[in-house]
Every structure is written in C-alpha cells, then in structure tokens.
Amino acid sequence: MQPQSDFYELLQVSPSAEPETIHRVYRLLAQRLHPDNQTSGSVERFRALHEAYSVLSDPESRARYDITYAERRQQRWRMTAAPAKIEDDYQLEQVIRLTVLEVLCAKRRAEPSQPGVFLTELEGLTGKPREHLEFTIWYLAQKKFVMRGDSAQLTITVDGVDYLEEHLPAQQRLLPRASTVTM
C-alpha cells in the first residue's frame, strides 16, 4: 500500500461509501482504464485502481487503511498551535476564528474543486467540539468570512481570506503565501 495514495480519491468515492458502491464504481472505472481499452486505457492507472479496490473491498484491509487515512488527513490539516498563554475567553475565541479560517483557506487552496468542509470535519481538525464552534461559525458567517453551501459545507469567502491574511502572522500559516512560493 502506497502511503501517499488516496484510495477513495482513486475510486472517486466518499470514505463513507458502502461496499456495493465501491464495487459498482470500480467495475465502471476498470472498464474505462483497462489496458485493452484503446481509448482511455492505462496500465499504471489500472494497477493503482485495482490496488485501491483490493484494499477498500476487504473489510479488514479497509479498516486498517481508514486508520492511516484519518491520521494522514489530520496531519495534512494540522492546525497552528495556540499561543502558549491565553489570557481570557475573548483571546481564545479569536484564536479559534483564525484556526477555522485557516482550515477553510487551506482546504480551498488544496482542493479548489471541493473547497467545503463539514462541521463534523471541522470538529476533528480543530479539536473543538461542535458546541464551541457554533458561535464561531455564526460570527464568521455574519461577517461574511464564511458561507454555507447547499450541502451545509462551510467555505471561506474572499473577505475571509483577506481577514486571515491581515490577522495571522506569516510564520503561523499552514500554507505559504503565493508571493513566497518559489518554483
């Protein structure tokens, strides 16, 4: 199993997909990517697809993969550390707001076609329970720094990105600013 492979992405299914869905999608993609298909066949892509299916179709292998998958996602979206000493609840709330905005900004930059984050994901990524995040989300939505999509996913707005860039020190950002990226 390649540690950097996202088998759910390779199979184009959700991590919560049922085994029947995984099987159905695999069959469709296998026909499309099979090396004998002269239009869209690819040996490398077919092998990767087969490896993903082999892992995700076996309940024990999938359970092991899901553990490492969750750990990788957690590390990928690791939050900035809160200041060592927070004086009061207002400072803590400011840190949480910046953390939420940073998660949403990092998600939009990393996956522009799927920039939304569900509140349950945000709970896991920030380490804050839903009850603590509800006020933060309400505030950020009222300020138009975040918005909810049709599927209730949260996404950052342009105003939210601007606010984040103004208030988060450069050394604490998850991803470097475009002006500091070197090719």
Which SSEs are present, and which pair or pack?
Elements: H1 7-11, H2 19-33, H3 43-57, H4 59-76, H5 89-110, H6 119-126, H7 130-142, E1 146-148, E2 154-156, H8 158-167
Antiparallel strand pairs: 1-2
Helix pairs in contact: 2-3, 3-4, 5-7, 5-8
Protein architecture, described:
- The chain has 183 residues and is mainly alpha-helical.
- The protein has 2 domains: 7-75, DnaJ domain (Helix Hairpins); 78-180, Arc Repressor Mutant, subunit A (Orthogonal Bundle), CATH 1.10.10.10.
- It has 8 helices and 2 strands, in the order H-H-H-H-H-H-H-E-E-H.
- The protein has helices spanning 7-11, 19-33, 43-57, 59-76, 89-110, 119-126, 130-142, 158-167, and strands at 146-148, 154-156.
- The protein has a two-stranded antiparallel ribbon.
- The two termini are 30 Å apart.
- Mean pLDDT is 80; it is low at 79-84 and 175-183.
